[in-house]
Specification:
heterodimer; A: about 300 residues; 4-stranded antiparallel β-sheet; 9 helices; about 15% strand; B: about 425 residues; alpha+beta; Rossmann fold; Elongation Factor Tu (Ef-tu), domain 3; 3 domains; about 35% strand; binds guanosine-5'-diphosphate
Chain lengths: ~300, ~425
Amino acid sequence: MQNYSLSHLEELESEAIFIIREVAAQFQNPVLLFSGGKDSITVYHLAKKAFWPAKIPFPLMHIDTEHNFPEAITFRDQLAEKDGINMIVKSVQDSIDQGRVVEETGVNSSRNLAQITTLVDSIEELKFDACLGGARRDEEKARAKERFFSHRDEFSQWDPKNQRPELWNIFNGRCKMGEHFRVFPISNWTEMDVWQYLKKENIDIPNLYFAHEREVVNRDGVLLAKSEFLTLKEGEAYENRIVRYRTLGDMTCTGAVTSECYNLDDIIEEVAATRITERGGRFDDRRSETAMEDRKKDGYF
Amino acid sequence: MSYLDMTLLRFSTAGSVDDGKSTLIGRLLYDTKSIFEDQYQALEKSSNLRGEEEVNLALLTDGLKAEREQGITIDVAYRYFATPKRKFIIADTPGHIQYTRNMVTGASTANLAIVLVDARKGVLEQTKRHSFISSLLGIPHLVVCINKMDLVDYSEEVYEKIRSEFEDFGARLAINDIRFIPISALKGDNVVTRSEHTPWYGGATLLNVLENVHIGSDNNLVDCRFPVQFVVRPNTDEYHDYRGYSGRVAGGVWKVGDEVKVLPSGWNSKVKSIDTYGKSLQEAFPPMSVTITLEDDIDISRGDMLVRPNNQPEQTQDLDLMVCWFNPVALKLNGKYAIHHTSKAARCVVKKILYKVNVNNLHRDQEDKTVGMNDIARISVRTTAPLFVDRYTRNRNTGSLILIDEATNETVGAAMVLN
Ligand SMILES: Nc1nc2c(ncn2[C@@H]2O[C@H](COP(=O)(O)OP(=O)(O)O)[C@@H](O)[C@H]2O)c(=O)[nH]1
């Protein structure tokens, strides 16, 4: 008899496609938040699959901190061009220039918080009622209880104590004017699932994820890339290393790992053997034990 | 690439404070090397701050700040780990009676439930509650872990006594596959590796059960059900006349050429193609997301259901339901609620509250009919439009629905169809 069962990647894919279609069906004006990282590239690929042979019935939006890796921006622009995507780009610099938010200063400053303002302003301005994102529950402990359909009030705030229950495969996307939902189709995926899926589906990702030579500075165990945005502290110096990235954020706070992985197979092998979480290399999470949870309440992705 | 053959198992855990649930999950994650160094260091740090000597693996499954302060889990937290055979999704839920709703949520998607029993205490009310909820939510496999065996000298007698106690009431559960494992979550006995301390136990370790339990037949492969989720109309030159019905197979095996009946219109047609991205399939089964095209041009929209002419769900406006209530505001007799069932939305009015179920012993309470938060009750409702339902025990996808308060938009109840 035939075995009617799916592999874990097929089942995760099917679940994610279901969620994405549910968003298109339940909301008036959804958007896919695209960061240029592997997770949002995965969600974008799933959205393509969900609506084929039609086009994705909503735009993509990138909140550009302008502290991004130039390679990630090039990748974004090339993808938009190739696939004919409606890519909205909103700039954090604009929010700063308009006085909507004050830029952090100092050696460990980042535009992580400023980004929230730009995002929230853009959602209000463009009247999005659902924002699809690539966050995963395994990334960080505050995310373990996040819903697929995560409700945000009119101030874009998340209330972890008052979340709508989600049972079976039934999703409740009803909301009032001014409120919206963040929707996370790959909630149930782990970092490993994403790498395996990228490989299985032969999906292009920025070359930053693969080993390359780069000037970095070792700051408290985090390897930060040389860039115009980084100020060296006393006693620090750049050195040349063969590195790659497991996650992409701002150049100012995303750490590289020393690695000789030149393709996805190498990465899958390396991730299986590593003992550090992907966000372990991110300065923004280290600020306090509940850093992520606090940012999420304020409207972070 | 062996990971292409891995399967997925979703399981729920429930336990009352101090049964060792968090320690067990921590142990599973730790022994399968799913805990990373930085997570481990963070644990070490938190444990030290709390003045604890050993690294408290239980802290791993402790999510939000408020909970950390109170020292208990108050929501469903999802955890992930994998072995070369399977990927696992744990729905980790609290065990107190006031979190019945969270247990129900965690159980709703689980293939398997782990129920923890403290070997020193034996089968308690809460053990029964967890088992009843698992049974009610249609979980096909139950594993009873008799924990803290180290504290009873790994005694076979204690184990056998608890096992027979459980079997006495287990006969009332609608679960056929029930297994027992003597473990120590703290020391690791029979969790991932076989224990030397229990030579009298001939069964498998917990991880072994999780890796090998047969889940292939948990889905309904008999009754073809395809709720239409979204209609795909590309309107491009290449696919000018393409009209596809997207959705997730909710039951049965669909094949190209199969006869189809469309509900509610009643039109018949045949499956022309089963499409996924750039590729056509010969068949589709649960829980695949696909797009189906039909031989004939029929007006079909979201909320309709494709079925087989000779195997149809019940079409009815009168539903007999077992509801679990989620909201502090009680269920209202004659109250109106919005209803979401598969891809269909409707409204309903509550006609009758028949009885409440005591989840500790499954007794029916016909006196007190106030259905408040965490209560489970049998009710009947009438809907504004016919729904296409199967009994929950036959199909979890077409036999489940949620109730929504139309004023607040909150999900206030979750129900299983008994029709
Ligand atoms: N001796 C022993 N203690 C255990 C075992 N499992 C858990 N414990 C202890 O029981 C207490 C409660 O465990 P915890 O995992 O926090 O329980 P939870 O409230 O169910 O999550 C802790 O002090 C654990 O160290 C076990 O198998 N043997």
